[in-house]
Structures are given as structure tokens and as C-alpha cells.
Amino acid sequence: MTMATAEHRIFIDRVGRVALYLALFALGGYAYATGVLPEILFHMDDILFLGREHLFLVAISGSLAIAVGVPLGVFLTRPYMRRFAESTIQGVNILQTVPTLAVLALAMAVLGIGVVPAIFGLWAYSLLPIVRNTYTGILSVPPALLEAARGMGMTNRQILWRVELPNALYVIIAGIRTALVINVGTAPLAFLIGGGGLGQLIFTGIDLFNTPMMLAGAIPTALLAVIVDFFLGMLAFYGVPRGVNPLR
Fold it and tell me: How open is the CA angle 23-26-32, to the nearest 5 degrees?
């Protein structure tokens, strides 16, 4: 993997985020133009309650994806694992290639109905961007830096923590950012297997042909995705050292 590849993935991520912002703007404009905003606010109690359930699903599944994805991505960059790296990543890729509803249905078949299969399905669907970006980011570290570190007498562990991870941090956070935004947008489907969340308003509104109820779930979901994206964008901008941050 080259730095050009990492930059290309970052560009694709930015295009996706612009599309997300435009979608949120369009939803808000539709609600205002059609005069359904007061009807949406009528569901505020449900929005707050289901929004907390939605955040819980995203927080738990996202944390588990980070806890598994980052170490796995680092492990695959070790010299003795690189020959297995692509096959392992393709195995993880299968989880995201399978349609979301199929992943949730399989999780429900094994784990039953409720929060646990919903968290498992969201975890599986969020894993690939984190593993791939961690792997790509570390392999994109310039070889000259690694040679200089070895010349200074650093151990492999010291090189990992002091050279590779700091230089790959921006790409790693970009993967986490993508995964969590996908997670927020996918979490409404958890309602279909009893996981709760804002999907209850969305799908109930669709079943009842109740547009305000549907928007009462769709707009907060889009807003949560934008907030998560913005927060992690600020973390990437201010948390990544200036020398390895392409935005500074």
C-alpha cells in the first residue's frame, strides 16, 4: 500500500461526508418547506428515548469494532503475517459485502432477538474500514523513517509505538470515522430484530404512511451521523501531530 492509496481513500471519505451533509440539509429543507416540522416535534419524547437507545447501540458496537479492528490491523502488518493479510482482510470484507439485513438476520438466528444480535451485526458491519485503514496507514509509513529508527537502536515495539502508529494515526482515525458514520446510519435496521433505536420511528412511519413520524426518526439519525463525523474530524485535526497531519 502506498501513501497515494491512503490519500485516495481519504478523498473518497470526504466525498461521502459531503453527500451526508447534503442529505441532512435536504431532509431539513423538506421538513420546513412542507410544514411538517411541528408534527415532527410532536414525537420529541420518542426521539429522545429512542435516540438514547440508538447511541447505546452505536457506542457499544463501535467501541468493540475499534477494540478488535485496530489491533488486528496492526497485527497484519507484522512481517510474519503479511502473507496472510489480504486473505484475512477479504474475510472481514465478506461481513460488509453481505447485505446488512442478512447480517442482522444471521445474528438473530444465532443469538436470538434483542440488543445482543443488533450489537453483533453492527460490530461486524463496522469492522472493515478500521482494519483496512489501520493496515494501510502503517504500511504507508516511509521506509526511511523505519530505517532511521532501527539505526537509532529502537526495538520493534518502540518503532511501532513511536514511529508507525503516530505516522499512521490520521489514516486510522479516518477509518474509525467512516466506520462510526456507517454504524449510525445502519443502526435503524436494528429495530427489525428487536434492538430498538430510531428505526422504530422510521419503519413505523413507513408502515403507517406517516411522513412526519418517519422524518422524526430519519432527521435525528442523519444529525447524529453528522455530529459523530464532525467530532472525529476535529479529533483528527487537533489530535494528530502537525508533521503527519495532511490538513495542517
Answer: 145
What are the C-alpha distances in Å from 206 to residues 168, 179, 194, 216? 43, 27, 17, 11
Task: Kindly list the averaged pLDDT for each block of 10 residues, start to end, along the chain of length 248.
Answer: 50 62 67 67 86 94 94 90 85 79 83 88 90 91 88 87 88 91 91 89 90 87 88 82 62
Nearest to 221 by CA among 58, 102, 62: 58
Select 3-244's CATH number: 1.10.1740.10, 1.10.10.10, 1.10.3720.10, 1.10.3290.10. Answer: 1.10.3720.10
* pTM of the shown model: 0.81
Is 143 in contact with 12 (CB distance < 8 Å)? no
Instruction: Provide Rg for the chain, Cα atoms.
Output: 20
Direct distance between the N- and C-terminal alpha carbons of the chain, in angstroms, rounded to an integer: 23
